[in-house]
Design a protein that fits this description.
Length: 459
């Protein structure tokens, strides 16, 4: 494999130093310390290198975020130039700065016209924290202060801070650190797992109508918003049935409940549309954004508001006591501008929609339809999932699907590809710049990992 590393310590040294002081995300730290993490040292385009010189095709855009791949000179230059000009200033006490102004201008030139304002944050979790405060404040301002409850979905993911965890639907996360009041959940629209003998269409309506039941149970005068990812990401890259979003939108409008789309993964071209709600054809009141906003080069997130909300908040709301030291950071804004301009001017999002995304989806279906392990294939543009199934006809999942999908991911590393495993689904979300030949490589290596997994199960 290619050696491109000039690491100043050996892998074992990095691992020992890491084990001494560092708590990683979502992991049994003791086990990880025994095993030693892979030390990633360099990245270029879709490729990563580790401290042993192994090269991997990153099929996951880091953590669903490097839309432009690694190491773009123009983004690096944008950060450097901004650092030289204005390293830091804030949005408090009646100030602003050119890069954040220009970023907002650019963002709203891409967004549908019914959005008009944005609050910046440093992450997706913070965008969703801001969401809760902002929608509750909105209802106060328009004279409906009892509308406070946020309805999320089981197995949804909105971040790791306390309130974003509570709004998300990962029960194992709720058990660590506790839940918050005035948050409720409905079921996820995961037809393969929970659709029983319903058609996807009927199941989509069934799940959406749980929202109506929940609103009626809680009283629409108490419900502030419904929040959901247009397609679930961390929960397994799950696309809802086509009937789902139109019905959710109908219900939200009927009961005057805000519809809040978490676009942290779906935003910035992932599906071939700029935002995933456009792919699914609905009109949210708010959009939580992060990740692809800067291609992950620097932390930045935000909460986009509809004109209806910002008219009330700006026009009648007075002081909104909310603000983060680094919100709209000039260096992050400069990187976001360079990133969005590249996605737009190099027609990268357009190409995903018209060419490379179609190619990925077609090839994926050609290769994996009929594969002994695959029960369902979902995805659009540069995001896809393969559902592992023990018995395809019965839509029966493996009891130890977590372990099997992790095994497949490990084979992937051995084959030189990084794909994500979530329970029983193998996920890919490569950088949007992926060429046809890089897509071929991604799929070929994934096929080998899947074949080895099937063989290991005697299939
Ligand atoms: N909303 C969504 C939909 C996300 O996917 C967040 C909010 C939180 O963003 P920050 O920037 O605070 O991490 C996310 C994050 C996974 C995985 O396992 C996905 C995320 C984070 C960690 C792991 O797929 N998404």
């Amino acid at each position: 494999m290619t050696t491109q590393t000039n690491s100043k310590y050996s892998t074992q040294e990095w691992q020992a130093m890491d084990a001494a002081h560092h708590i990683h995300a979502f992991v049994d730290q003791k086990k990880l310390n025994e095993e030693g993490p892979r030390v990633i040292t360099e990245g270029k385009r879709l490729y990563l290198w580790d401290s042993d010189g192994n090269k991997y095709l990153d099929g996951m855009s880091g953590l669903w975020c490097t839309q432009l791949g690694y190491g773009r000179e123009d983004l690096i230059a944008a950060a450097t130039q901004q650092m030289e000009k204005l390293t830091y200033y804030n949005m408090f006490f009646h100030t602003t700065h050119p890069s954040v102004v220009e970023l907002s201008e650019l963002l709203f030139s891409l967004l549908p016209k019914h959005y008009s304002h944005v609050l910046y944050t440093n992450s997706g979790s913070e965008a969703n924290e801001a969401l809760i405060r902002t929608v509750r404040r909105y209802w106060q301002v328009v004279g409906k202060p009892t509308k406070r409850i946020m309805i999320g979905r089981w197995n949804g993911y909105h971040g790791s801070t306390l309130a974003s965890t509570a709004m998300g639907g990962m029960k194992f996360m709720h058990e660590m650190g506790g839940m918050l009041p005035e948050i409720a959940h409905i079921d996820e629209p995961y037809w393969y797992a929970h659709g029983a003998d319903m058609t996807p269409e009927a199941f989509g309506l069934h799940c959406a109508r749980q929202l109506e039941d929940k609103i009626l149970e809680l009283g629409s005068e108490n419900v502030a918003a419904f929040v959901a990812e247009p397609f679930q990401g961390a929960g397994g890259m799950i696309f809802p049935p086509e009937s789902y979003w139109p019905e959710i939108q109908r219900i939200c409008r009927q009961y005057d409940v805000l519809l809040c789309a978490d676009e942290v993964i779906g935003g910035f071209g992932r599906t071939g549309e700029w935002f995933a709600h456009q792919y699914f054809g609905f009109e949210p009141d708010t959009l939580s954004i992060a990740k692809g906003l800067t291609s992950g080069y620097i932390p930045m997130g935000g909460l986009v508001l509809s004109k209806r909300m910002s008219d009330a908040l700006v026009g009648q709301g007075g002081v909104f006591a909310h603000g983060l030291t680094y919100a709209g950071h000039p260096v992050a804004a400069a990187v976001a501008i360079a990133n969005i301009k590249a996605l737009r001017d190099e027609k990268i999002v357009e190409r995903v929609k018209q060419d490379t995304g179609l190619y990925l989806q077609e090839c994926l279906r050609e290769i994996f339809t009929g594969h002994p392990l695959v029960g369902e294939i979902q995805g659009a543009g540069m995001v896809a999932a393969l559902q592992l199934a023990e018995d395809k006809a019965a839509r029966k999942r493996f009891k130890n699907e977590d372990e099997i999908s992790w095994r497949c991911r490990s084979y992937g590393f051995e084959e030189g590809v990084i794909i994500r495993s979530t329970q029983g689904r193998m996920i890919m979300a490569p950088a949007l710049i992926a060429t046809r030949s890089e897509i071929d490589e991604l799929l070929e290596k994934t096929r080998r990992a899947m074949d080895r997994t099937a063989q290991s199960l005697g299939l």
